[in-house]
Amino acid sequence: MNIKKCTVFFLSLTLLNLYCAPIFAADNDKKIIIQITLDQFKADYLKWYRPAFSGGLKRVLENGTVISEGLVDHALTNSFPGHLSLSSGMYPAQHGFPANEWIIETEDGWGFSDGISDKTTWIAGDKERTSVSPNNILVPTIADWVKSNDNGAKAIALSSGTAISLAYGGKKADAIYWLDGATGQFVTSSYYAEHNPRWLDDFNAGELNDFKMNIWQNQIPIKYRSLAEPDRSEYENFGVNFTFPHNFEDEKGENLDMSDQEKLNRWFYDTPLADEALFAMAKATMINEELGQDDSVDYLAVIINSTDNVGHAYGGRSQEILDTLIRIDLALGSFLTFLDDTIGEDAYVIAISGDHGSPDVIEYQQQKFGQGRRISQAQIDELLDAVEAEASTTTKTGNELISSLEAIIESYDFVYDAITEQEIDGVKLSQNPYMEAFRRNWVKGRIPDFPLWGTGQRDHHPARYGIVVLFHENTIFHAAPVVHGSPYSYDRAVPIVFYGSGLGNIEKSARTIDVAPTLAAIAGIKFPTGLDGKVLLD
Predict the structure, then answer these.
(1) SS3 sequence of 107-170
(2) Residue 411 burial (CB < 10 Å; 0-12/13-18/19+)?
(3) For residue 243, how far is the Cα from the chain centroid?
(4) Helix 79-88 and helix 142-149: axis angle, to 10°?
(5) How buried is 404 (Cβ within 10 angstroms: 0-12 exposed, 13-18 middle, 19+ buried)?
């Protein structure tokens, strides 16, 4: 690193961060950084399904640098912290999001915050709907780096999942957009803009509707269907609507409070059809925002959500997930051809990765391997009731109370460990082999309730006392057929792929926190010192 090229920037955190220009791209010709993330992108997918890819995934896997098992290097492998580590090069302990939600005290007792909802914001064009802001993100993201590097550059993040693009846009992005399940349209927050640009309204009213089919067919070529499990596994989607074709009319449900259009919007949101639309949205964004068209280095994030929706419901060995990946493969291929034609194949660098992996459906594991356990809502509520009873009646306080609650929690046979703040701080010894990963996850004052999702009001949830729970390996709870979030290898292994011309040698062992600084280095973008991640270029 050439320290003479450093510039000091004041950030909103009122701290000084030193930004240094990397020396790796002296003759840089990149006009745009494109970061593509597949939510719940298991490393196994490349091993199981690669023969079926014929489009963009095939192209980047054959011509890019492939790290087949990148590491999500923190313990609670929930979505938002995983995305934010990919975009910031920092562990959750630094970026501020230990999980998708954490416990807070409210006027009505103890409850939970998702960290992004902000009552001072609204969905652009609709002041009746509260929206989101990045105010709880404690570090700059790569979009912030790009804007700090050159205010003439543009940084935009897109996602098919609700507000996940916020994790990439950070505080300085020109725009973030996401597919809204309620309206079936791409929206943004008033934090970024009070009204949609005209081109977005035109896209929502026009091209987007071309993707809103009311049937999801299996498009896997016959010769590749045997790569996944047969389409008759009753453990998928808890035994409801678990085979192709998936027809909206059969699956829309009986909710009388929603119109058929609202139901179609939400059904569409959960399918890979939404991500086919997302890539069309990416093309429209490139054209209308003129990304990659001048001497500045722009940034575009494209976050794919259907791999998570489908993975949760049907599992990673299903016909549904293979069909989803093939659709993404083809849409990515079309997008890469679009990039070649509009800005040139030498003008962009792409990184593709995942925010976390996932286990197999427990019932599949039980049938195939005789292992795995699913915990019911009743079992979790029983544990929480026991904690509630002790905490609300005992005269114990402080560490004595915490030790008592820890013992109660660990008496349940599905609990591997109850991790306390004393163990995180090293005051109390722990034999937990994942303790370092939990330390990288820990944010004081933001203690997650995961995986103890109970029913009813819980004024004495273990999270209130700084306790986080780890279940045994291959033990998941009732929330969905597949639940990720653990520090076990199946939740932490994801592919990392870099693609573009002239990238040079890239290390083949990597963590997701290395993605952002490596992209920045390739494109000649200044990035903060003191990142947890590193540049992977030799």
Answers:
(1) CCEEEEECCCEEEEEEECCEEEEEEECCCCCCCCCHHHHHHHHCCCCCEEEEECCCCCCHHHHC
(2) exposed
(3) 27
(4) 30
(5) middle
Structure tokens belonging to residue 294: 């001048």
Six-digit token string for 391: 């905490």
Contact 244, 217 (CB under 8 A): yes
Residue 483, token pair as written in the block: 């639940």
| 494 Cβ neighbours under 8 A, 6+ residues apart | 41, 42, 43, 69, 70, 71, 72, 353, 354, 355, 356, 357, 512
pLDDT of residue 26: 42
Alpha-helical regions (H) of 233-305: 248-251, 260-269, 273-288
pLDDT tens digit sequence for 177-209: 999 999 999 999 999 999 999 999 999 999 999
The whole-angstrom separation of Cα 369 and Cα 350 is 38
Backbone angles phi, psi at 534, to 5 degrees: -130, 165
Provide the whole-model pTM. 0.95
Question: Which residue has 């809502």 as its token pair?
Answer: 377
Tell me the pLDDT tens digit for each residue of 110-131: 889 999 999 999 999 999 999 9
The Cβ of residue 178 has, within 10 Å, a number of other Cβ atoms equal to 25
